[in-house]
Amino acid sequence: MVYIRSFASDNHAGIHPEVLKAIERANVGDAIAYGGDVYSERAKRLFQEHFGDDCEVYFVFNGTGANITGLKAVTQSYHAVICAETAHIHSDECGAAENVIGCKLLTVPSADGKITVDQVQGFLHDIGNAHHSQPKVISISQVTEYGTVYRPEEIQALADFAHANGLYLYMDGSRLANAAASLGVEFREITTDVGVDVLSFGGTKNGLMVGEAVIFLNKALGQDFPFIHKQSLQLASKMRFIAAQFEALLTDRLWYRNACHANRMAKLLADELEKIPAVQITQKVEANAVFAIIPPPIVTKLQEKYLISLWSEARSEVRLMASFNTEDRDIHQLVDDLRSAINATHI
Amino acid sequence: MVYIRSFASDNHAGIHPEVLKAIERANVGDAIAYGGDVYSERAKRLFQEHFGDDCEVYFVFNGTGANITGLKAVTQSYHAVICAETAHIHSDECGAAENVIGCKLLTVPSADGKITVDQVQGFLHDIGNAHHSQPKVISISQVTEYGTVYRPEEIQALADFAHANGLYLYMDGSRLANAAASLGVEFREITTDVGVDVLSFGGTKNGLMVGEAVIFLNKALGQDFPFIHKQSLQLASKMRFIAAQFEALLTDRLWYRNACHANRMAKLLADELEKIPAVQITQKVEANAVFAIIPPPIVTKLQEKYLISLWSEARSEVRLMASFNTEDRDIHQLVDDLRSAINATHI
Amino acid sequence: MVYIRSFASDNHAGIHPEVLKAIERANVGDAIAYGGDVYSERAKRLFQEHFGDDCEVYFVFNGTGANITGLKAVTQSYHAVICAETAHIHSDECGAAENVIGCKLLTVPSADGKITVDQVQGFLHDIGNAHHSQPKVISISQVTEYGTVYRPEEIQALADFAHANGLYLYMDGSRLANAAASLGVEFREITTDVGVDVLSFGGTKNGLMVGEAVIFLNKALGQDFPFIHKQSLQLASKMRFIAAQFEALLTDRLWYRNACHANRMAKLLADELEKIPAVQITQKVEANAVFAIIPPPIVTKLQEKYLISLWSEARSEVRLMASFNTEDRDIHQLVDDLRSAINATHI
Amino acid sequence: MVYIRSFASDNHAGIHPEVLKAIERANVGDAIAYGGDVYSERAKRLFQEHFGDDCEVYFVFNGTGANITGLKAVTQSYHAVICAETAHIHSDECGAAENVIGCKLLTVPSADGKITVDQVQGFLHDIGNAHHSQPKVISISQVTEYGTVYRPEEIQALADFAHANGLYLYMDGSRLANAAASLGVEFREITTDVGVDVLSFGGTKNGLMVGEAVIFLNKALGQDFPFIHKQSLQLASKMRFIAAQFEALLTDRLWYRNACHANRMAKLLADELEKIPAVQITQKVEANAVFAIIPPPIVTKLQEKYLISLWSEARSEVRLMASFNTEDRDIHQLVDDLRSAINATHI
Fold first, then answer.
1. Chain A contact set for D95 (CB, 8 A)
2. CA-to-CA distance for C155 and A7, rounded, in angstroms?
3. For B272-294, what is each residue's pLDDT tens digit?
4. Strand order in C79-84's β-sheet?
5. How far is C250 from chain A (nearest CA, A)?
6. Which CATH architecture has domain C17-249?
7. CATH 3.30.230.10 applies to domain D254-345
8. What ipTM does this complex have?
9. Which of A243, A234, A228 is nearest to A35 (CA)?
């Protein structure tokens, strides 16, 4: 087995040792399937400590599953979800929103992955007109797909606007921990307290083997979720092993330690890359991603040794992701190799 | 944590130690996500050794996910799937076939969980008539939901009939290992060799933490599966950990050891129950399930100590499942407790 | 153009002259599209006179469109609709319920096309269990697909049962006029007054060129119907011409005259057939259909001259339909030809 | 009944007298339902004379029905349809594409309603990547939603590009007659001969009461259409009356006379409006639509007398549509009223 160091995605990392230990500990005796076990009960309780006693928590398998089931719970067939054109639900889920939910996505252009109230406003002029899909949800990603982080007041503004217009605010929080760590806030300061109605909470990219959560902060919206959960292929039979992972993640602030570390690695990488004239960082580095334009031959050279993926082939822009398991020496080695490649190609 | 012994389902058991070990061993370094890893490659190769070099193998999260994606790959919107009225896809997946695939299920009554060519025949008179959903797939469960096992020739007959009429034969093999162990055959003798086109292969109920496989024995049918895989929320990012579990299951015939053991436990239980006049076994015990009518007060009494679920409340019929982790003493204890309950209630 | 007399379906008849006249009269000047015209307003008012001021009325193109949009308005993805196995929505709409609504149909066997409370009862034991589609609607056809007619008290019993269990009662009334004429009642006595929540009201089979109505007797259920109407491809642009047809149908009781006539023709046919020993009538003749077993060679002979369709090839059972345009002499000629065919074949 | 003159839509006009006559003529005797009648046969033959012997023709109810069924026939769940952001399928069908087909629409910005090969190109970089919906169809509207008309060579370029990349070219031809009349070409010169694979052919906006056609120029693509036709609620029972209308439309070039007239009326209107400084025409007037910016108070004044709809409230841009029944004096009266309104408001 060749050891690979990947900067291509934070889901290339493995299982955090504390999470794996939790799986092992949960592997004793029989347990009721489908969530009727004590691990699920405890993990949900931990979530409620973070997000408020009044939320409903469900565990699913993956990020696409979390987004699709979470949005399906709050949309009818004639509803539309407004999101950034960069949103994972639009760009990276193979049409699941349209096919499995059956609703329309209305996209707004976004240079940094965020959307604003002004952009959403334009979609509301056809409310009530039966010829048009009816906007019902604003969906934002926290961290965004460009590695940027919404400030609490930005979220509050979108939530206020949504609620004033009969819409809901959905948050794709596959990297919510990285956002919270970046802002130095608790989860609820960027979710419950600022008006998020439904949230997907990422586990896999922050050290879990498999598992995400769908959290209804507006509890009433989740009342029929158990049926959607099952119907949409996201109800695990041996649920205790997903729950146990989340229990580990929310114990001793492992979520925070992992996210802080990944963020710090990205910052270190960005700091080093900024010193290299041939490289141009293209987005604010606020979480665990560094977007940078690197000359094509250099990218090619680095890909001989590292997993690195192009975000935009046209711009030769890469997305470099740090994970909980990225080490300082990995960053330094990558930067060294980058410098060598530049020198060798006389750029 | 109270130790619970469950006879309610084979997914109440935990992770088999060899499977857990495999997860631990796979937890080293980074790996390409979504199946581009060596564990996936190796596991698929092992499947091909069992099912033939020419099959395509994909890993999904759960049984419902396997069935729905497998069937979605071979149906158009106007197609129907013929299955027993007891079929899991009809009775226990909260309408996923209709909602996520969008096709009709045509059900046939079944006393033992099996369906026959004669029963299917009746649905074919409207082939070509645009007013009717067009039967395209016969779906059978092996082991059936009643714990019975199709003989190879029964499967072959259905496959021959299907193919002669332009249909496919799909097998829900969530307990395929129990069937193979029961019949004393290799997997391919009840799948590839007898005309099954698409198969879901169960892992979770035979010792995995999470993971099922969709196998296209008719390879051409799977050519667009990667898109359905992703779109239907069943593509794991850290796929290596599902693959590694299957690698363990197919190594040293763990699948067989687990299945044989569970089957033997069910047989032992059935043998003991047959000695008790107040209990009536209702189905042939061919795999790891025992269906039995037990007087209501006795069931209630047992449920104080064991997880036992009623299959039919009206008939007071229970389904008692054995798992890879069921022990002889569990069976004897259950039978003892059953006898005591009967004596105490003077039945 | 050869003149064909059809007994195969009541939609083989053309447009009733009064209806055609109404189309012609509406063809003056411009009119707002999509239902914002005075014809639509007037026609809806006429419906409200029949069904109550508090109903909502929408016009659609065809019976399948009416059923699917009407049911889509009252179901979520995880809901099931309970209906007879003979129901048009199950047998004759090419899986539209499953594909366009995305919900499950749960069928009950029926010898006469009707369903009873007892049959529905069996589906309710899994209410609240996320593994099962949740029954939400009981759907009945009035007239049934076997030409039988529900008595008001039978409908009331189903409605009471539905409402007591949180379900709705839907009525496929593609031949509602025939039922009302048969029972000698006003529409509301077999709909609004006995608890029907949503109704499709047939026009095409009773003399219209094209047009059916979806009527929400439980008005709240229709509040988002305009979006479903449009999205499900059933919103006509030149709506005035559908509305004008309904206006004609509800003027001077044309609906009643047409339905009475068709019913009387069926009765006449049945009376004549009963005199012929080789023919066996198989269902009560309560509306405009006669179901009869006629020896295969006789059917073949008749089909040389008439459009006659086999309901069951296995039983050599035909469904003979009368329409508003069937004449006494047509019936007598058919019976004469039938007798001649029998004599010629020595049956 | 107040006489209304509408410039809001070409579907505000009624039925052309020759079309109504055809309906009346078809209203004799019984006819096989669902398209098995001689009117359907004859109308299809007429279409084949226009589009080639090798096309398949189906009649549906409305434009949304035509588009959705036509596109459903050529897409799988994981496919995407590329269209202009102005496309009717994206903007005006209440999410039917997403909900009834279940596929994704990928939109490109368009100033004149057209799309180009360059714009489509950008969507093809993810072909084969399972995380992304797979572009399978380019959909264009002829006439576009901005009243502009594709030249044959523009269509050919899109078709060539589509076919070179494994895509199909779909044309929303709800105003195809207006485009052909505008270009002075036969239908096939802008469809069959330039590579269009599937076409919706508009009837309602060109004088029909109700009826559109779906035409498979690439015949193989339509082979399973009968099932989609029925399932998608678009199969008329009394089909002869839709077919008869099309027969009239294709007889004595009624389609051409109607379209030419409407186009000429729009041209006349545009010519007159160009003389008025306060009015700014915003799109080329190539068919029967005139897009113009008119000061808000003037629009309000005109709306007291005419049906006129705002295309863009923000820009005070109206879309003025001419129909087969628009008369010269209607145009002159409108222009006179417009001038008077301007004078009265001192703009």
1. 77-80, 102-104, 133
2. 66
3. 999 999 999 999 999 999 999 99
4. C56-60, C212-216, C198-202, C168-173, C134-141, C79-84, C104-108
5. 27
6. 3-Layer(aba) Sandwich (3.40)
7. no
8. 0.97
9. A243
